[in-house]
Amino acid sequence: MCWMVALLAVDGRQYVYRVYAPADALRGDVFWAAFHCHDEGPHPRASDRFDSAEFWRLLPAART
Questions:
Q1: Among 18, 24, 38, 41, which one is most buried in terms of CB atoms within 10 A?
Q2: Residues 27, 33: Cα–Cα separation, whole Å
Q3: Residue 64 maps to a domain
C-alpha cells in the first residue's frame, strides 16, 4: 500500500511524493516521511504545515 502526499514549497510549486505505509498509517507519520524526503532533496523548502498537504492512497491493482 502506498500513499501520495503533495507538499507546497516556497517556490509556489507542489511536489508529490510516494510513501509506502499501511492503509491504517497515521497521516502525520505519512506527512513527515514525505517532508523529510523532500527536505533531503535539491528542491526549495516545503511548507511544514500539515494542513497544506494533500493525501491520497493508491490501491493495489486487481490481478486477473
A1: 38
A2: 10
A3: no
Q: DSSP string covering 10-64, please?
A: TTS-EEEEEEE--TT--HHHHHHHHHHHHHTSSSPPBP--GGG-EEEEEPPPPP-
**How many domains, in total, are found in the chain?**
1
d(CA 34, CA 19): 7
Q: Shortest CA distance to 3 belongs to which of 28, 15, 17?
A: 17
pTM: 0.80
Which three cell numbers, joined as nine digits, stand for 60? Answer: 493495489
